[in-house]
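ingest -> validate -> predict -> emit
validate: passed (alphabet ok, no gaps, 181 aa)
predict: started
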Amino acid sequence: AAVDSFDVPSGYTWEALIRWGDPLFRDSPGFDFSAQDAAAQARQFGYNNDYLEILRHPGGKKGLLVCNHEYVNPQIMFPEAPASAAEEAARRAIFRNAVGMSVVELVRDARSEPWSYVQGGRLNRRITMDTVFELTGPAAGSALLQTGEDPQGRFVRGTLGNCAGGSTPWGTVLSGEENFN
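emit:
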C-alpha cells in the first residue's frame, strides 16, 4: 500500500503555516471538510497553490504572504461524488471561491523564529473568481475593456488559473495567467 510522506533533510524541520480552509478574517468560519460552503470558502484560505511570496517588513518580524490558488481537484475536495444536480451546483460555487489568490499578514517573534498567520489581519484579502475590481488607470473605460456585464469598461471580475508569479523591485506582486489555448 502506498503511503503519503513528507521527507525533510536531516537538520531541518517543517511546520504548516496556513492550510486550505483556514479562516482569514475575524468572522470567518473554521473549515469543515464534510460541510463545505461557498460563502465560507470565500473567507477562508484557498485551495491548491503553486506560487507564494513573503514580502518582509523591515525588521523581519512582520510579513505579507501572497499566494495563488490555481485550480481545484474535485475528486479529493469532497468525501464522495455529488448525489444530485443541486449538490453539484453547490460544489461549483465552492470551486469558484476556492481559486484566485490570498493575501495574509504574518508575524514572528524574531527573525530566527517561524512565521504564523494573523487571522483578522488588517491587510488580509481573499480574491476569488467573482471579486470585482474597479479599473482606475488610463485604460479604464477603453472599448477593449467593455463587456456585456460592464458596457462602460470600468470593472473586471476575479481571477482564475494563476500559474506562478513574482515580486517586483518596488514591492508589488505579479501573478501569471494560465494559457488555456
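The radius of gyration is 18 Å.
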